[in-house]
Amino acid sequence: MKLTHRAAVVPVAAVVSVLAAFTFAAPAGGAPVTAVPSVKVTATVAVGARPLAVAVNPLANTVYVANAHGHSVSVVNGQANTVVATVPVRRLPQGVAVNQATGRIYVANTNSGTVSVINGQTNTVVATVPVGAFPQGVAVDPRTSTVYVANEKSGTVSVINGQTNTVVATIPVGGVPVGVAANPVTGRIYVTSDGTEAVSVISEQTNTVVATIGVGHAPVGVAVNPRTNTIYVANEVSNSVSVISGRTNTVKATVRHVPTPAAVAVNPATNVIYVTNAFQNTVSVLAG
Known about the structure:
Elements: E1 4-11, E2 16-25, E3 36-45, E4 51-57, E5 62-67, E6 72-77, E7 82-88, E8 93-99, E9 104-109, E10 114-119, E11 124-130, E12 135-141, E13 146-151, E14 156-161, E15 166-172, E16 177-183, E17 188-193, E18 198-203, E19 208-214, E20 219-225, E21 230-235, E22 240-245, E23 250-256, E24 261-267, E25 272-277, E26 282-287
Antiparallel strand pairs: 1-26, 2-3, 4-5, 5-6, 6-7, 8-9, 9-10, 10-11, 12-13, 13-14, 14-15, 16-17, 17-18, 18-19, 20-21, 21-22, 22-23, 24-25, 25-26
């Protein structure tokens, strides 16, 4: 797969910006023309203080924003683009994930070493689960209702049973684990480690690391396209995105000249990848 980097760059503000796809645009920088959706900001939604993470429940068309300095989660109606609830959680929430199968939302509270479990119907916290030190990234496998939490200062991943809201395993991955993503089709979990410049591949069946893949400097964000079994890793210091084959556990491409990439997300339906540029206040759009 060949990626055309920086196919579009979208400025954003220190709030929640809503992007919509419209016509098609050619990539910048004199690259060959590749059809990718152009995007623009269609709404700006005021949320809490320092929003650092966001997740969407597509079935409910609801967006959840973790406000790190507000110690809360803003619940946004995706149709009206308005905040319909603000849910207090523990200190410094920096990660959020949604299980659309159960309507549960999982929030990693970095300074309290916990995960808040929110009921999406009532917008209330129904459980608080102790995990490792400095939890950052969080991901859910909706098929198994299992939650995975990257604990930055513990060098581990906590595995939470979504039915009992208890930690059932703690997996050492080493370094400084930051990001985590799940492929529910293959049962593989991908964890970025800022300290080892690698991605750990975890088997859901055994809760063990089955592969370690070297990537760029300071890998942080990670996302999976389960349809193509491809993993995308944002390497913040290398200014690149590593493209990993989930079948071979090898890097099959590196997209360079992506300015300070931090978070990454992929639309499986269109195979378009969105990467936040930490210090440019922009989003790079990559065509898969």
